[in-house]
Each structure stands twice: as C-alpha cells, then as structure tokens.
Design goal:
The chain has 13 helices and twelve strands. It has about 375 residues and is α/β, with parallel strands linked by helices. Strands 4-11-10-9-8-7-6-5 form an eight-stranded parallel beta sheet. It has a two-stranded antiparallel sheet with strand order 1-12. Helix 4 runs parallel beside helix 5, helix 4 packs parallel to helix 13 and helix 12 packs across helix 13. It starts with about 25 loop residues before the first helix and ends with a strand. The structure holds flavin mononucleotide and the ligand CCCCCCC(=O)C(=O)O. The site of flavin mononucleotide has 22 residues, from loops.
Length: about 375
C-alpha cells in the first residue's frame, strides 16, 4: 500500500502543483520528498494495520449534530493544557526521529508548533537532543519518556528535560516492546540516515535500549523523581484510567500509538467516552484527558472535544508538513486544523471549546 490510509485521493501528482488546502493534501507531497524506508516507517501501523485504519474509520462513523441560530460568528478556540495556554486544543504528538522528514528535525517542528501557538511533546528518541530542541523552540514543550531497562538513563533524561524547560513528562505506557511495523520491515531492515536519537545516543550503549515492562509503581517512581506533572500516554481501558489517576497522573492520553503497537486495539475515539467518564469519577475532573490517533480534520478535533477530550495530539500530519515545508509546513498543517476546527464550531453553533457537549456527536442519523 502506497499511502498511510485507504481513502481515495487525487492521483498522478496533480495536487502537488497547488497549495495544499487540507492536511491530507500534505501526505502525497511528503511521500515524494522522503526516502522510501523513512516513508514506510512513518506510515506504518502494526501488523495488518487494522487499528491504524480503524482510527480513521471510527471518526468517519461519527456524525456532528449542529445547533442553529446561536449567533456564533467567531468561536473561541483558546484553552489551557495543564495550565499552559494554547491558541487551539491541537497539540503535537511525541514522535521519534523527525530527522527522517527534514534535516532540521525537531528544531523545525518545535518552531512550527510555537508559531502555530501550540505545544509540542518531544520524544525520547528525537533526532535532535532535548537541549537543541529547547534552544530552537518558540512555544512550550513537554517531554515524552520511554523508560528503558536502565532506570538511571530515565532519571538522567528527566533531569535534562527539566533543565531544558519542559513543562510536563509524558510517560508512554503502551510499549513494553516495540510493535511489529511489517510495512516498514518489508521494505527495509533499518532506518535511513536522519534516524539518530540524539538525546539518548550520548547516554548509553545499545544493550540498554530495550523498553522496560513498566508497572504502576513506575508511575509513582516517576512522580517521586520529578515535580513536573506526569501524563500517561497509551491508555484505552477505563480501569487503567482510574489507576492512572490514583497513581497521580495529571493527564491521560487516550491512544493506541497511532495503530503502531497492538494491532486489534480499539480506535482511540471509540475508547474515549468510557475513559472520560472513569476519570471524571476518579478525579472529580482534576485530571485532563487528551486523545490522539487519526486526527486529520477540524471535525475530528471537534468530535473528540465534544466527547470529553481537553485537547488532541496530532502525529503523522505534522511530519508530512515538516517534510514538505520545514517549520513553515508544520505551522501550516496545524493552522489548517485550527481553521477547520473554527469553521466546524461556527457551523455547529458552538462559541467556545470549553462549552462543548457530547450531544453534539451522534453515532448515526437522527
Ligand atoms: C513516526 C512515528 C514516531 C512515533 N514515535 C513515538 C515516540 O517516540 N513516542 C511515543 O510515545 N509515541 C510515538 N509515536 C506515536 C504518536 O505519539 C501518536 O500516538 C500517534 O502518531 C498518533 O496517531 P496519528 O499519527 O494517526 O496522529 C510515533 C508515531 C509515529 C507515526
Ligand atoms: C528503536 C527505536 C524505536 C523508537 C520507537 C518510536 C516509536 O514510538 C514509534 O515509532 O512508534
């Protein structure tokens, strides 16, 4: 399969001659610019990519039921995430090795995110070190932590993230081992140049880089070694959401890792309502719930917000924008999503992202 998703798009390069008008227009343009192995890695889901496809299909099954005559002309998209103001509830997901998409890697992505008025989560396996990214960034950063078998490495990374000014730690919980990205394995045995992991390359030898099988005690451990808020990423079961709150998580990302870990896991948007309900019960609304996976349209963002997400993270489209236009491409991708969200809110009669109701979303025709 040549594309990251199944939907029909214009073929034959015709779209590449005009300015992209939607996020999805960036996908074929990015593919033209990237090494085939890098492209396969970026696109890949795990195994048969059932969950990867389902992330999109589940959004497409949902309907928005607009309210009318509400006098909404300029919806307010501004919000906060763990107290940090953002221009819109559309954040940059932690993704490794941005250097596969652009030589400036995460430095360009962080500039693009900042210029779009939002925050970026920097991956443990970023191509540029957390110090370099922080030096380039024009907006707030969070740091995504993979805990390897060496806990000493994890603690050193946390210290570096703190010194670099990151405002939260995102602990990825869905990766006790790496998902099998067969689409990538079929075309390449290894990643092409650009796939450095600068923050950790300087720290360890290969033998330390196996992921650890974490337990809930590790969440408590992370909280004990840092005063930064901890966000748990990769939660799909409501009981895990409750445990996350009980172990002190300030936020939860409902995520199946963009379909890259357990194939057959539910779509994130399907899992969201039960997690939102569980977190509301367990934390009285203090913990924030975010979503990622398959967000490609402003209407997807609106559906997720209406179903209780405080914000969404966007993954692959940010790398498409990065490949096509560096920092400016990232800014434009985020700007397109923001513009579409604003448009959808106006058409749905919604004045602000704070006042959305699950009633806005329906599973079928009314
Ligand atoms: C190329 C690539 C690299 C990723 N690297 C990481 C990572 O280092 N840490 C992590 O927690 N998630 C990682 N993810 C998962 C994203 O954070 C996010 O969950 C996912 O991309 C969201 O789905 P979307 O791409 O459909 O928007 C990666 C995803 C991709 C596509
Ligand atoms: C050997 C490095 C694997 C990094 C995994 C990054 C990730 O979470 C993803 O690609 O997905």
């Amino acid at each position: 399969m040549s594309r990251c998703r199944g939907a029909a798009r214009p073929r034959g390069g015709s779209i590449s001659r005009v300015e992209p008008i939607s996020v999805l227009d960036y996908e074929p343009l990015a593919r033209e610019r990237m090494h085939p192995a890098a492209w396969a890695y970026l696109c890949a889901g795990a195994e048969d990519e059932v969950t990867l496809r389902e992330n999109r299909a589940a959004f497409e099954r949902l309907r928005l039921v607009p309210r009318v005559l509400r006098g909404v002309s300029a919806p307010d998209l501004r919000t906060t995430v763990l107290g940090t103001p953002v221009e819109a509830p559309v954040l940059v997901a932690p993704m490794g090795v941005h250097g596969l998409a652009h030589p400036e890697g995460e430095c360009a992505s962080a500039r693009g995110a900042g210029e779009a008025g939002t925050l970026m989560a920097v991956s443990t396996v970023s191509s540029r070190s957390i110090e370099e990214v922080s030096a380039c960034a024009t907006g707030p950063l969070w740091f995504q932590l993979y805990v390897y078998r060496s806990r000493g490495l994890a603690e050193r990374l946390v210290r570096r993230a703190e010194r670099a000014g990151c405002r939260a730690l995102v602990l990825t919980a869905d990766s006790p081992r790496w998902g099998r990205k067969e689409r990538f394995l079929r075309v390449a045995g290894s990643l092409p140049p650009g796939a450095d992991a600068a923050s950790i390359d300087s720290e360890v030898g290969e033998e330390d880089l196996a992921p650890a099988a974490l337990t809930w005690e590790d969440v408590a451990w992370l909280r004990s070694v840092s005063s930064l808020p901890v966000v748990l990423k990769g939660v799909l079961h409501p009981e895990d959401a409750v445990l996350a709150v009980e172990h002190g998580a300030a936020g939860i990302v409902v995520s199946n890792h963009g379909g890259r870990q357990l194939d057959g896991a539910p779509a994130s948007i399907e899992a969201l309502p039960a997690v939102v309900e569980a977190v509301a019960g367990a934390s009285g609304g203090r913990a924030e719930v975010y979503l990622d996976g398959g967000v490609r349209r402003g209407t997807d963002v609106l559906k997720a917000l209406a179903l209780g997400a405080r914000a969404v993270f966007v993954g692959r489209p940010v790398l498409w924008g990065l490949a096509v236009g560096g920092a400016e491409g990232v800014r434009r991708v985020l700007g397109l999503l923001r513009g579409e969200l604003e448009h959808a809110m106006a058409l749905c009669g919604q004045a602000s992202v704070g006042g959305l109701d699950p009633e806005l979303v329906s599973r079928g025709a009314r």
